[in-house]
Every structure is written in C-alpha cells, then in structure tokens.
Amino acid sequence: MQVHLYDGIYGELDTLVHIKHLLGVQILTGSLASLPASTKLESRSGERRSPGSPLIKMTQEAPYKWLSAILFTTLPLLILLTFRDYGISWDEQLQDTYGEYVVRYYTSFFRDTSAVGFGDLHYYGGFFEALLRLFSYVLPLGIYEVRHLITGLFGVGGVIGCWKIARLLAGPRAAFFGALLLALYPPYYGHIFINSKDIPFAVLYVWAVYYLVKLAEEFPQMSGWTAARFGIASGLTMGVRVGGLLLLCYLFLTLAILLTSIFLRRSSLLPSRWAVIGRTILGGLLATILAYGIMLISWPAAIREPFVAPFEAMAWFSRERPYTLIRSHVPMHLLYKLPELYLLLILVGLCLAIRTLYRYARKGSVDFPRVLSYGLVVLSAFLPVIYAVVTKPFLYDEVRHFLFVIPPLFSLLGIALSGLMEAAFVRIWIGRIAVLLLVAYFSLQIRLMHQLHPYEYAYYNRLLGGVQGASQSGYVTEYWATSYKEGVEMLESYLRRRDGALFDTTRYSILLGAAEWCAPPYFPGNFVQVQDPEKAEFLLATTRYDTHTTNGPQVLEVQRFGVPFMIGKIMEHDPRPGELKVSRSEITVGQSYVLRVPSAPRSPVIVRYSLNGKDAEEFTTSLDDRGEVKFDITDETAKGFYRFLSFRKVDKAEWTPAGATITVK
C-alpha cells in the first residue's frame, strides 16, 4: 500500500489526517509504530518513507514523552540548585508582610484585620502570599529563600500547563515544543523566583484556560469534574489578582456559544437536546460558584464585602494612573521581549490559521469543536493585550503584568513549531538542517540566559540590541533591585581585599539607594545601614531612579552586557568651614606627608580620624615655625585610617583653607 505525501508546509496536515482515516492510526496525537511493515510512504518526488524514517519518527509519541519528562525533571533540579542566587525583589518585603497578615486573619478567626487595610495590597488576593508564609514556618530556610524556592517550583506549573494545552490540541510533539519555548523564555524563567504576584497568576490562569478548553472538547458530554477543576483554578487565580474574573467571562462566552450550537445542529447528533442544555448550565453554575467562593476564601477584604471589594479592586486598578500610558506599550514590549524565533512562530501560526479558515470556507463546513478550542486559547492570549491597547491601563515595569498571556500563547507557538518541523521532514535533508538550526538557536538562548543570570528577566531581543540597546533606548532592565544581593557580596569582597585581617573587626556604615530594604538581609555582621549621608562611608544603590549619582570614587558595579544595575561608591563629604579632609584613597603607605598652613605658624591643629570603623577620634598637635606638621604614614597607620583623616584649627577664625595643602615630602 502506498500513501502520497504532499510537499510543502500546508499539505502535510490533510495527508496525515487522510492516513489516519485510512489506517485507523492516531498520527497527530498518536504513533505510527503500528503501521504494517509493508507500508511505504511516498512523497511526490517518489522518495520512499519506511516506518523507521525520520518523518515517521517525527510523528511518534514516545520520544516527545521522554523529552517532556526530562524537561520536567530538569527544571525543578535547576531551581533547587540556583534559587539562592536571586536577590530580594522590590515588593517582596511588603508582600511577605501581607502574607503574614493574611495568615493572622484566619488563625485569629477573623479578629486580626491588619490585612484588610494594608496599603494597596489589600486590593490583591492573599492566597499565594499566605501559602508562602506557611511554607516559611516549616522549611529550614530564610524567609526570602523560601519565597524564591516555592515560587520557582510553582512557576514550573506554568510550563506544565502550557504543555497540557498543546498536548490536548495537537499531541505530544507540540506539547514538548510549547513547554520548551516557555522554559527557555528568559523573562518567565527569571520572574519565577522573585515575582509572587504575576507568576502565580500566570500559572493558575493557564490551568484555568486548559480546563476551559477541556470543557469545550467534552461537549456535549461535559464532565462535572472538569467544570469543578475549572472553578478551582479560576478561583485561585482570582485569589491572587482580581483580574482573574476575566476567566468567568471566558466561561460564560463559551457556554453561550455551546448552547447556541445545540440549536444549529441536527437533533440526531445529540442524545437529548434539553439534557445537554441542563448539563451545560449546571456545569457553568458549579464552576462559577466554586470560583467565586474560593476567591472570597483567599481574600480577607473580599470576605468582609463579598460583592463590593472585588469590584472596588477592579475600579482601583482601572483609575490608578500616575502617568499616561501610550497604546503601543504592551505590543512594543512584547515585540522586544519575545525572542526572534518566537516572533517568527507567531507569523507562522497566523498564516496557518488563515489558511485553515480559508479551507473551511471553501468546503462550506467547519470543524466546530476544534475551532472553538483553538479560539479559546487565542482569546486567552490576545484579548488582554487588545484590552490594554484600547483602555491604556496603569502599567509599569515593562510588561510583567501581562506575563499571564505568555503560557497560552506559547502553547500555540509550540503547535506552530511542531507543524514547521513536521513539514521540514518531508525532505530529510531539510528536516535535519532544521533540527540543527533549532538546537543551535536554543543553545544560544541557554548561553544568553546563563550570561544574564540571575537577572534573566531583564532580557530584550536583538531587534532592540539586547539589554544594552534596551537601556540606551530608555527601556527598564533590572527594575526589581534584586542586584543588591550581588552588590553587597561584591562590596564585602572588595573590603576584605582592602582591609585584610582588619575586616572582621571593622564596622562599615552603608548608605543605600532606592528599595533599600532589599540589601540588609545580605549584610555581614559588621555592615550597618545608615540614613544620614554624612555618616555613611559607602554608597550602594540601584541605578533605577538615579539614586547612585553622588560624588565619590566607584569601587564596584553589578552589570550585564555593559549595563550597570548596581553601583558601589566610597562616600566623599564636603569639608566643614575651617576643615581639610583627606580620603583614604589619597594616603599612600610608606610616604610622609606635610600639612602646611603658612598663615598660622605654631598654631594648634586638631587631627580627627576614624580608626577601624569606630566613631571619629581626635588628638591635638601644633604647627612649627613654618606653619607645617609632618605625618609619617606607616602600614599600620594606613590600615587604621578607615574612612577619613581631617585637620581642624582650634581657632576657626584664623583658619585659611585656601592656603592649606598636603604634599608628599
């Protein structure tokens, strides 16, 4: 028996479906292993294809199941190995406090209402923050280490959800590619450790979309258990952020389409029209009640005002606009944040969708369940973006608020990539080249993520010139201030090299820039945060909001691809009237220095210094007949002068700073 395979990308699908009906073998979502040994597949060029050929291997389930299993095993292991590399993010301190308040709200049986009016966080559900707090009570790790570990592992659930959607629609190959695309998407991977707002929302959102698609696939025999799981996933999504109410809108739209389709079908196709209508409505009610109930349970403010607080939160998100957002904000950021291959796959998917709809139009019939399933995923990925373009909501920090559209979008991209690879293997040499190109691209992507680590989320694609081009164009890069961790470590390393054995007995006063709360948890015991710049010996500041722009020699820089994320400087203080200050950088060991004040011979001078990081100490000496005093800087003396050496006249009225110079003798 021979079956002809048509050349080109778009002829492949019809051919495989034809083979499926001809042989009864599930090719798109199954395996060709059961083809008879005598079966030969032939292209229009006459090239034979045996069941062991690369084309057949591309359609088998087993390799992609194994590859998916390897991916889902590798990701958690990678998270366990690297979660300690990530610093505290800008919002984490407040979010952790909110989680503690939510736990106290329930453990006090609703008497402790600290969570109800806690800043603007009471507009958010408390499900995930409370979950993180509970884990911190039982895991033998620091609070922020627990947060990064659990959020990271939870983020893997988004990769699995993406895999589930693609698996349901197009089989194991598309599922693997979708999951791989998401796992190697730097912004998603970087956020899963540090973003307990947007990542849980994205994970739960994609699972709710999966169960909604599954409901549509099951129609007219909709399962109550599937409806319940959709309700649970949607409720937990809303228990993170009220925007999850959008999922109920998707549900109502889906039910309306399905119920309408009942009256457009021939009655013989349905076991009982009214029974199906009843089952569908009951499934929708079950999902809605579960979703709303779980949202209320997860959200202290909503428990107190169940039919007011959620809509107040939606109104707050809509009217909170400290600045005007341009309509292209989300599309432009997606254009520059999505890797180049992914943008290409969007175009490929669009072409495939248009061609499929054109074929349906020519045939005069539509595969309604399939179109609805794909339509729901497309809706979940693109409707929020369209909404942002139309309404210009309050957004900041590039496009992190729209991370939730990424998993369903990437499930579609996985399907597009799967179709491309299958089409490429119509010609074996083209298929092999495609595999090599794909491996090379993903290898470069992994290398890039390694270079950005642990700031993968700062990624921009090559259309904008990468991270460097984005920074030069005014796009935000490391906006979470997680680089304080690396900055503190670099400052400690610098001081250990500089001060040697004295480091452990020296106290260092540190002034911090924006998001200052992100640094102290990483301080060694002898680092002390100060608020007064005059008392600070070092500045450590994120480059966001330009809080690093102060005078003083720079001693460290946290950067990726030449873009500074964190700056460390030695603080330089302007001298007081009648005072001359000498910074440590101006003192060289083994040299002799002369303080010369020609206008005040034999006058007493107060020498003020900071020794070993302690408070400033003073002693008095006198100028000689020439108005000079000599200082020999020995090795021990230089180590003792921690930050500064200053000279002050007792009688300030006779002090002449302009005539005072320090020269090497």
Task: Identify the notable features of this structure and list them briefly.
665 residues, alpha+beta, 4 domains, four-stranded antiparallel beta sheet, 15 strands
Question: What's the helical proportion of residues?
Answer: 40-55%
Number of strand segments: 15
Structural class: alpha+beta
- Uncertain regions: pLDDT < 50 for 5+ in a row? 1-48, 611-615, 636-644, 648-665
Across the major sheet, the strand order is 5-4-6-8-7
- In whole angstroms, how far apart are the ends? 101 Å
Mean pLDDT: 83
Tell me the Rg in angstroms.
33 Å
The global form is elongated
Biggest sheet, open or closed, and with what strands and sense?
A: 5 strands, mixed
Residue share in β-strands: 5-15%
Give the count of structural domains.
Answer: 4
With helices defined by DSSP (H or I, 4 residues minimum), what is the helix count?
A: 22
Topology summary:
Blueprint: E1 2-5, H1 11-23, E2 40-43, E3 48-49, H2 54-58, H3 62-82, H4 92-107, H5 127-138, H6 143-170, H7 172-183, H8 186-194, H9 198-218, H10 224-238, H11 245-264, H12 273-297, H13 300-304, H14 309-319, H15 329-337, H16 340-363, H17 368-391, H18 406-424, H19 428-452, H20 466-472, H21 484-499, E4 508-512, E5 527-529, E6 538-542, E7 554-560, E8 563-570, E9 579-583, E10 592-596, E11 604-611, E12 617-622, E13 628-632, H22 635-640, E14 641-649, E15 661-664
Parallel strand pairs: 1-2, 4-5, 4-6
Antiparallel strand pairs: 2-3, 6-8, 7-8, 9-14, 10-13, 10-15, 11-12, 11-14
Helix pairs in contact: 3-6, 3-7, 4-5, 5-6, 6-7, 6-8, 6-9, 6-18, 7-18, 9-10, 9-11, 9-17, 10-12, 11-12, 16-18, 17-18, 18-19
